[in-house]
Specification:
With 127 residues, this protein is mostly helical. Residues 1-16 have low confidence and may be disordered. It has one domain (20-114). The longest helix has 27 residues, at 59-85. Helix content is 68%, strand content 0%. The N and C termini lie far apart (44 Å). Keywords: Membrane, Transmembrane, Transmembrane helix.
Amino acid sequence: MNDQLPQDDDRAITERGTTPDTTIPIVVYVLHLAGMVTGGLTSLVGVVIAYVYRGNGPAWLDEHYRYQIRTFWIALLYFGISGLLTLVLIGFITWLAAVVWLVIRCVKGLKTLNEHRAPENVDTWWV
């Protein structure tokens, strides 16, 4: 019988009672949320952390890093478009929609992270 754990077998890790540390992904989600107050600066730090830690854990945790990276780039696009649209006043509404989108996306990610599973619909542009 082989006592070594395969690196990609998440069930084997759970059966042995060890779960990966989720502190870093939690910090990245919080940095994304704080980015709304800091003008995106903390979100930039968060995406760098996500890029650095991506690929160092089980598949479900790597999906969170991928989700966080996509959240950063999509948010940058949404907030950029909203900034341009403020010139015609509709940007304030799209900015509010982008804030709601970011909050929902981060809360959804934190919820699934707490459940030790990958976020659903990682590739979506919505929530």
